[in-house]
Amino acid sequence: MSNDISPEISIDNLGHEDRHFAPSPEFVAQANATPALFEAAKADRLKFWEDQASQLAWDKKWSQVLDWQLPFAKWFIGGKINAAYNCLDRHVLEGRADRVAYYFEGEPGDTKVYTYGDMLKEVSKAANALTEIGIKSGDRVAIYLPMIPEAAIAMLACARIGAAHSVVFGGFSADSLVARINDAQAKLVITSDGGYRRGAAMALKPAVDEAVKSTPTVENVLVVKRTGQETAFGAKDIWWHEIVDRQSDKHECEFFDSEHPLFILYTSGTTAKPKGILHTTGGYLTQTAFSHKMVFDIKAEKDVYWCTADIGWITGHSYVVYGPMINGTTQVMYEGTPDTPSKARVFQLIEKYKVSILYTAPTLIRTWMKWGVEFPNSCDLTSLRLLGSVGEPINPEAWMWYREVIGGNRCPIVDTWWQTETGAILISPLPGITHTKPGSAMGTLPGIVAKVIDDEEREVGNGGAGYLALTEPWPSMLRGIWGEPERYAETYWSRFAGKYFAGDGAKLDDEGAIWLLGRVDDVMNVSGHRISTTEVESALVSHPAVAEAAVVGAKDEMTGQGIVAFVILRGGIEHHEGEVLNKELRDHVAKEIGPIAKPRQILVVNELPKTRSGKIMRRLLRDVAENRETGDATTLADPNIMKLIREGLNSGKSED
Ligand code: WT7
User: Fold this and answer.
1) Which ligand 1 atom sits closest to the C-alpha of 417?
2) Which runs of consecutive H residues, i.e. helices, occur in 485-579?
3) Tell me: the pLDDT tens digits for 285-341?
4) Residue of the CA atom closest to atom 23 of ligand 1
5) Which atom of ligand 1 is closest in space to residue 530's alpha carbon?
6) Domain made up of 527-651: CATH architecture
């Protein structure tokens, strides 16, 4: 782990926040969560999780709650369950077939409503189609789709037949897709001709065509027709409507072992290779359903819930598909961007569908702040009763704005901390119980044990800052990194023996509330999405003009962190002030990884600051990128280097 941390933590820990917001008596009176939950979890944690698991429909009950062979956990052992059955069949069997599951709104304004009955039929047809194609339990299916109902349908169809899905965010490039397909050895890719973004039909299929040239395991590509744009069709390709529409809408589902793989989702780590985070079934479903019900205070008969996350991220898995569907929630699903055709789009949809619960990311909240209050103020937002935030620390200013402008000072805010690896929310206020503080995720949910510890693994205590670690296993925890058990143990369980290290810094205030301080490793958080410095560096050096690159995440008002790259050019290559190379390098990174990883800024330097052992001192580069005095540089191999870097930059700064 990098030793660049402590200064940041101590700086951040100077911040002080005294505002408190108690839940209103009306909210308390109707809240799902009660203090009894904490008491039950404290009295007997495993029994508590068993009680939560009992809320699901199991074909066979488990015989053992937990098998914990550190760092490998198994939950609800011997139990048999089907994820899609819990999301769909159960609601239909219990008389909820006519309840709306998704109000889908396409970016161009086309709409479609799916009830739970419709979803069961669509998922059954898709499951039958997957079976016809030859997909079986234990196979992996890559899903590369825009935010359209078929994304949820495809995920649930895979779950229904026991095939693990690996959803790849539609904004990732063909190369990223190749890496993920090959790592998981996916047999099938489900994609679409394209999707609508910023008023235009954006093609997706060409990236798949490019990818499958280098993915020997892929036997077929199933293509949803979304935009109708001109699409090349090859021998492996099958139109979704041609095979799915003619299937029976009945499908008898099989029940799988509680520990049967449900999905793999790739996330950035500190090395160039993304990690295939593996989640299994029983524990994951138990905890996503429980947390969704309590944190969002879901009243499924009347709430309209909208989580704005894309299906390509864990938030889309846990809080657009599995958690909400198990709870029989009515949701809004929106395909496009928040500024199309107007900056009021999200607010118009809240008004149109009478959204009562909104779950979004700080980066969007800050964007709204920048756009101005006229957009939210032009719509009726009084249907809202609860607001959520996720993805990165939310600064108190944005929190207050969210509360006042969007929530009309009426709605509790839940700032939810979790990770792809944790599967579900672990730290969050519980509405109706917690007195919230702007900017704090407050405390662990019932059944979760977290500690803030220092380098020597001592608890820092109230008023202290350190590393966030989880000291007991939890049902929705990752079961490993796909195909890399050692990397799993090394990445998460070796920094502090026997504890899960999340990679985040945290402080405890005087009252013990938890404040997340961001990543302490070389992982950047751009708009709530993790991107590793190494990955971007590898992309940069794969360009013929670049000899060496160092990438840092610098504070960015809008995106949380922005990517700043320091590059050394190869001999003979001149850096043109004309920005040609700059643009070329940024486009190159977008091609290699995806537009989300495009550096905000590329700075050409002659040297990089390194320790004597050759480790790049990113902390010092971050000082430069954030226009600060350079911090302690005594461990530099060449003490003059920072001066040279700054001088060099001042003579030929490149930015856009
Ligand atoms: C990292 C996990 C969890 C879904 C979205 C991101 C940061 C997440 C918060 C929060 C402060 C947060 C952490 C974490 N993070 N939520 N409420 N406050 N930081 O999932 O891509 O797996 O990233 O996001 O740094 O480790 P992810």
Assistant:
1) 17
2) 485-493, 533-541
3) 999 999 999 999 999 999 999 999 999 999 999 999 999 999 999 999 999 999 999
4) 419
5) 21
6) 2-Layer Sandwich (3.30)
